[in-house]
Amino acid sequence: MKIVPKSPNSRSSKTESLLPSTLPDFRKPVSRSRSIRIDFGAVALRPESLMDKFVIRGGNPLVGSVRISGAKNAALPAMAAALLTDEPVILENIPDVRDIQTERNLLVSMGAEVELGYGRASHRTTISCSNLGNPEAAYELVKTMRASTLVLGPLVARMGRARVSQPGGCAIGARPIDLHLKGLERLGASIKQEHGYIEASARRLNGGHIIFDKITVTGTEDLMMAATLAQGETVMENCAREPEVIDLAVLLTKMGAKIEGAGTSTIRIQGVEKLHGARHRIIPDRIEAGTFVIAAVLTGGDLTLTNCDPTHLGSLIQKLEEAGVRITAANDSMRVTNGHQLIAADISTEEYPGFPTDMQAQYMTLATQAQGTSLITENIFENRFMHAHELVRMGANIKVEGRRAIVRGKTQLSSAAVQCSDLRASASLVIAALVADGETIIDRVYHIDRGYERIEEKLKGAGAQIRRIGEILPKRAQAPSVVA
Ligand code: EPZ
After folding, report:
1. Is the pLDDT of residue 119 over 90?
2. Ligand 1 binding pocket includes 450 (Cβ within 6 Å)
3. What is the number of the ligand 1 atom nearest to the C-alpha of 146?
């Protein structure tokens, strides 16, 4: 199916223009089976999905197997990379999560054509940016997903200008993008910030030398993309080494870019005149895999994760083995078997290959079930302990002091009404509810839909007692019918 920018009065059965100049309107997505699903923009969540909750009855071991989806944090920069060429980029193993829908709408709002696969090809997306008319990322989109700022570098490099909303604050920290802007300036772009927007422009970027003050994942990705079309060579130091950065470099190289050193702290990019189209399969989601590993451990299950890459989870596996967990890893699968006596083990979050901050919340839930005291230090984000207060409501013994949390275990968790505050915090609460005694109600699960594909169906398939409940809001009179 193809989503194209609207031309007045055009309407055909298979195409639907999404974005009038202002924001997309809400409409109810079509059912998930073989019929085509049309989503009018993750920003415009189904009104009722904002009310969705999970009801989870704890105590069931997870057994069988779960297929891991493609990595959200690899898919988002890969989709932005399509802006660098006027030829189609075909991406496979794209997870069906809200942030991907937001990214699609962002690209369509600029004039890109986005084709969604369905049925067996439902995780494939073809993006064609041959007709980019509007190099702008609007506030309404950026405010729901900061990763929208990943379009900045590609737009300046390809179009010579970009207007991108400042992302603003986030539940887990201030998360400025100053290092992205500094890097672009070092490549010769002129940057203006006014009315909440960044205006960046350059006739053509020039290769340069960038030393990041701090390791930044999307900063490395954004500038690596920008440098591919710059005049001359760019050397970037103190880069992020995440698997998602490597995956992006693999895609860019397939598009004709000249990149060396991705995955190390020094990346060299030789700029080229033009990039071409490519086909690329996105790597598996290591954070989704890690989340299911901890859920299996805590429910005392016997679970095999397929379509994953255990080598991307070295630090987590090592830490879990330290805590008494046995994991059998193979090429593209991992098996967690039961019968663990969990012992407390400290963690501190670091840049890759250190312990991932995106697994900190889930690990905190595990620490509540381990014998002894675990010290959890969050070094990446300044406000990433929101889940701790909700876990305490479920009976956990956790004390937060600034960027450190002291977890005393083992304590019996009991069901309670809790609410999600951000994506990974939501995952930690779902895991806690799978262990807790009784039926837990988790509110604001729209946070988890941003980065986990149909988590309740995957868990149910492995034996969990979980259901999604949504409040059906009264239909708004003027809501138009949806084309199926
Ligand atoms: C990426 O965010 C991930 N998001 C995050 O995953 C992840 O938590 C984070 O990397 C760290 O691993 C995507 O890839 C889309 P950073 P990013 O720039 O790139 C500071 C999830 O749950 N900083 O590496 O935004 C920043 O405030 C999400 O999937 C600056 O000061 O993170 C933070 O303290 C959450 N100035 C630190 O650097 C900048 O210009 C690392 O942030 C950029 C970052």
Report:
1. no
2. no
3. 25
Provide the mean pLDDT of the chain: 89
Cβ of residue 179 lying under 6 Å from some atom of ligand 1: yes
User: Rounded to an integer, what distance in angstroms lies between the CA atom of residue 63 and that of residue 21?
Assistant: 48
Q: How far is the CA of 212 from the centre of ligand 1 (A)?
A: 13
Sign of CA dihedral 144, 150, 152, 158: negative
DSSP 3-state of 148? helix
How sure is the predictor about 49, in pLDDT bands with cuts at 50, 70 and 90? low
Condensed to tens digits (0 to 9), the pLDDT of residues 15-42 reads 444 444 444 444 444 444 444 444 444 4
Pair 423, 455: CB distance under 8 Å? no
Compute the distance from residue 217 Cα to the ligand 1 centre, in Å.
Answer: 6
Find the helix packing angle between 217-227 and 178-186, rounded to 10°.
20
- Decide if pLDDT at 438 tops 70: yes
The size of the chain, in residues, is 484
| Closest approach atom of ligand 1 to CA 179 | 40
pLDDT digits (tens, 9 = 90+) for 307-334: 999 999 999 999 999 998 989 999 999 9
Angle 473-479-484 from CA coordinates, rounded to 5°: 100
Closest listed residue to residue 205, CA positions, set 191, 192, 193: 191
Among 313, 451, 361, 368, which residue's Cα sits nearest to residue 172? 361
Q: What is the pTM of this model?
A: 0.89
Determine contact, residues 459/434, Cβ cutoff 8 Å: yes
Q: Is 129 a catalytic residue?
A: no
Question: pLDDT tier at 189 (50, 70, 90 boundaries)?
Answer: very high
pLDDT of 461 > 50? The answer is yes
Question: Residue 22 is encoded by which pair of tokens?
Answer: 């202002």
Residue for token digits 């988890």? 448
Output the pLDDT for position 146: 92
* Those residues with Cβ within 8 angstroms of residue 120's Cβ, 6 or more apart along the chain or in another chain: none
Atom of ligand 1 nearest to the CA of 174: 27
Q: Is the CB of 381 under 6 A from ligand 1?
A: yes
| 110's tokens | 């600029």
Whether the pLDDT of residue 10 is over 90: the answer is: no
Query: How confident is the model over 211-257, as pLDDT tens digits?
Result: 999 999 999 999 999 999 999 999 999 999 999 999 999 999 999 99
Is 221 a pocket residue for ligand 1 (Cβ < 6 Å)?
no
| Residues 274/204, Cβ–Cβ less than 8 Å | no
The residue nearest atom 9 of ligand 1, judged by CA position, is 217
The token pair that represents 446 in the structure block:
């729209």
Which residue out of 100, 145, 186, 218 has the highest number of ligand 1 atoms within 8 Å of its CB and is therefore the one to mutate? 218
Q: Is 428 in the pocket of ligand 1 (CB under 6 A)?
A: no
- Are 78 and 123 contacting, i.e. CB atoms less than 8 angstroms apart? no
149/142 Cα distance (integer angstroms): 7
